């Protein structure tokens, strides 16, 4: 049975695909396209059309026979479903090289987010600026979150401090965390953590690259064997 999120009745896997649908719709809007079919939208989002129709049915959107989906209306509908109609205020904790890159990401505003606070523990970093914000000390985390009305935290700390910082984030009232620290976080069940481990993702790609190389080598050896048998016939 598919896991659903909260009281929405929407499967978690469906929620994970909604941003791709919204991105595709924004692209269509930018090209002046007013209506789209499930086939076109699915192709742009990188899913099957049957999967797209099923996902949108969870939102109560079924399109119109012979017309398809009205692009701006569906984009508004998905925006509402994702909860990004109103801007979410983000705090980034850990302003090393990755934290700086995340702070300077240019896509927040168009997707319903604003970086409201930057925090770090290093005296070499605290008091400096990044992305137009002064980096504050992590010791003031609770005060900063309350002052800036932070609703989502991006965690880019070293692994050995990530658990402690995450616990403070939760105690400060934030229940949504995007975790870039390379470790699993043990937090209450009502806390939503999305983890991005670049090293692990690269290892998975390395596995597939190795498997492809072995398969190609196997096919090459089979080809050589066939040539040898032909020559000896």
Structural features, described:
- Modulates transcription in response to changes in cellular NADH/NAD(+) redox state.
- The protein is α/β, with parallel strands linked by helices.
- About 50% of the residues lie in helices and about 15% in strands.
- It has helices at about 10-30, 40-45, 50-60, 70-80, 95-105, 140-150, 160-170, 200-230; strands at about 35, 70, 90-95, 115-120, 130, 135, 150-155, 175-180, 190-195.
- The strands form two sheets. Strands 5-6-4-3-7-8-9 form a seven-stranded mixed beta sheet, with helices on both faces.
- Strand 3 (about 90-95), helix 5 and strand 4 form a beta-alpha-beta unit.
- The longest helix is centred in the last third of the chain and has 34 residues, at about 200-230.
- The relative contact order is 0.08.
Quick structural summary:
It contains eight helices and nine strands. The chain is an alpha/beta fold. Helix 1 (12-30) packs across helix 3, helix 1 (12-30) packs antiparallel against helix 4 and helix 2 packs across helix 3.
Q: What sequence of helices (H) and strands (E) makes up the elements?
A: HEHHEHEHEEEHEHEEH
Strand line-up of the largest beta sheet: 5-6-4-3-7-8-9
Contiguous low-pLDDT stretches (5 residues minimum) are: 1-7
**Spatial separation of the terminal alpha carbons:** 58 Å
How many individual β-strands? 9
Residues in helices, as a percent range: 40-55%
Backbone CA Rg: 23 Å
Major sheet characteristics: 7 strands, mixed
- Which term fits the overall shape? globular
Structural class: alpha/beta
- How many separate helices? 8
Q: Could you report the average pLDDT, rounded to the nearest whole number?
A: 89
Share of residues in strands: 15-25%
């Amino acid at each position: 049975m598919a896991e659903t999120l909260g009281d929405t009745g929407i499967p978690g896997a469906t929620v994970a695909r909604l941003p791709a649908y919204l991105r595709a719709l924004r692209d269509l809007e930018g090209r002046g396209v007013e209506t789209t079919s499930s086939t076109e939208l699915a192709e742009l989002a990188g899913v099957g059309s049957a999967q797209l129709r099923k996902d949108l049915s969870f939102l109560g959107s079924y399109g119109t026979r012979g017309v398809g989906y009205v692009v701006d209306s569906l984009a508004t509908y998905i925006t509402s479903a994702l909860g990004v109609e109103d801007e979410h205020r983000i705090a980034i904790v850990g302003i090393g090289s990755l934290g700086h890159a995340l702070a300077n990401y240019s896509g927040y505003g168009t997707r319903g987010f604003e970086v409201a606070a930057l925090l770090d523990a290093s005296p070499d970093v605290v008091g400096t600026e990044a992305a137009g914000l002064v980096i504050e000390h992590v010791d003031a985390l609770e005060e900063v979150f309350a002052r800036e009305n932070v609703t989502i935290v991006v965690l880019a700390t070293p692994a050995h401090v990530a658990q402690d910082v995450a616990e403070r984030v939760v105690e400060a009232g934030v229940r949504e965390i995007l975790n870039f620290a390379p470790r699993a976080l043990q937090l209450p069940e009502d806390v939503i953590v999305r983890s991005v481990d670049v090293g692990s993702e690269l290892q998975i790609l390395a596995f597939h690259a190795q498997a492809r190389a072995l398969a190609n080598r196997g096919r090459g050896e089979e080809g050589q064997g066939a040539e040898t048998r032909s020559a000896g016939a």
